Amino acid sequence: MKPTTPFGIACLLILAGCATPPVDQTHRRLLTLDAHLDTPVHFGRAGWDFGARHDPATEVAQVDLARMQEGSLDGGFFAIFTDQGPLTPAGFAAARSHALARSNLIDTTLARHAELIGIATTADEARRLDATGKLVAFKSIENSYPLGDGVAALAEFGRQGVRLVGIVHSKNNQFADSSTDKPTWNGLSPLGRDWVREMNRLGMVIDASHASDATVDQMLALSTSPLLLSHSNSRTSFDHPRNIDDARIRKIAAGGGAICASTIYLSELKMGPRRAALFDRLEHIGTLAPPQQAALGKEWLALDAVEPLWNTSFEQYIAALKHLIAVAGIDHVCMGADFDGGGGIEGLSHVSQLPRITARLKADGMSEADLAKLWSGNLLRVLQAAEERAGN
Ligand SMILES: [Zn+2]
Questions:
Q1: CA 315 to ligand 1 center in whole angstroms
Q2: Gap from CA of 342 to ligand 1 centroid (Å)
Q3: Residue 22 CA to ligand 1 centre (angstroms)
Q4: Ligand 1 center to residue 210 CA distance, Å?
Q5: Å from CA of 367 to ligand 1 middle
Q6: Nearest of 244, 221, 220 to residue 333 by alpha carbon
Q7: Distance (Å) from CA 309 to ligand 1 centroid
């Protein structure tokens, strides 16, 4: 929901110069938020401007401010992702400095574009920013590994504006078991139970994406606030442990929570040796000189052309999204494509293409009120529920 962007004006004036068709007016009216943007991985890149439009034909990044305006994505949760190292004091210390540096990098990057985007820490602040025509940035954590061997750092990250925290990533950590690792704790560790209580006390939203089934069950039983899955799908759509079964989706919905539809794991992940090596380099793209960044982008996109990461069609994605709505109910589904973190499929490969989803669902008869729930209403309600229960 924002006024016509400079891009839109340019499109009206010189139609021939438009890279994409004008955005559907319904999509433009909606407040649209994505619950999981891994874009901060690009924020430290020398010579890379988050404000500029990066050409998807040559550039590996899937989100920038110009394409957010083009695709009318009004904002979302920008993740502080930390790759997991050893669960030792030295490992925790290194992870903590990485996460704090990433948090600062998000702040300094957004501050350079303060006329276009602002940081929100509450649902109301997000609505206020949107009402003034600004994009909305929330901060989140993916993987609680950098918190170390206690939960005190949650409050510290909270003071830096973090509002949504994922307990675990692809490997078990000190707090919980991951969906893609063998059980260590059979769910939450004793410290993980403290983590849930502290998250509730601070009014921060628990992100259960990547958590094992037992971890999800125990968080559901223990948490006094609803759970969010910031980027997940149903195992009915594609049977993979990283997705979640329909019975658990119903339980999360019954607790007032929501599942944000992702573009990942709707088909088999093609992770050959070339892609794995590229992923490693991508995680450190912020340390590469511009020519090496460009080379990485070129190699990544060349591999996409012959061996895409996902063999998922746009229609399969829509079917999976509709399945989530059928199982959870329209009040419990949100959006989290996993852009810049492995997400993106043919036809939905970067943020400019998001209006396709709205257009497709509208063609199916979905009302604007329901689209509004899907694109931000449900996500903000979960955030507000956590805020209201803070201190208890
Ligand atoms: Zn993830």
A1: 22
A2: 8
A3: 31
A4: 7
A5: 30
A6: 244
A7: 15
**Considering only CA atoms, which of 105, 116, 128, 123 is closest in space to residue 73?**
116
CA of 117 to the centre of ligand 1 (A): 24
Q: How far is CA 117 from CA 73, 134, 153, 171, 368, in A?
A: 12, 5, 27, 33, 25
Is residue 313 within 8 A of residue 345, CB to CB? The reply is yes
Token representation of residue 61: 């990044």
Q: How many CB atoms lie within 10 A of CB 254?
A: 13
CA 93 to chain centre: 25
User: What separation in Å is there between the alpha carbon of 264 and the centre of ligand 1?
Assistant: 9
Measured in Å, residue 190 CA sits from the centre of ligand 1 at 24
Q: What are phi and psi of 391, to 5 degrees?
A: 90, -10
Which of 323, 179, 197, 143 is closest to 249 using CA atoms?
A: 323
Q: Are strands 135-142 and 162-166 parallel, antiparallel or unpaired?
A: parallel
Question: Distance from the CA of 13 to the center of ligand 1, in angstroms?
Answer: 40
Decide if 342 contacts 376 (C-beta within 8 A): no
CA of 129 to the centre of ligand 1 (A): 27
Q: Residues 229-274: pLDDT tens digits?
A: 999 999 999 999 999 999 999 999 999 999 999 999 999 999 999 9
CA distance 178 to 186: 10
pLDDT in tens, 114-170: 999 999 999 999 999 999 999 999 999 999 999 999 999 999 999 999 999 999 999
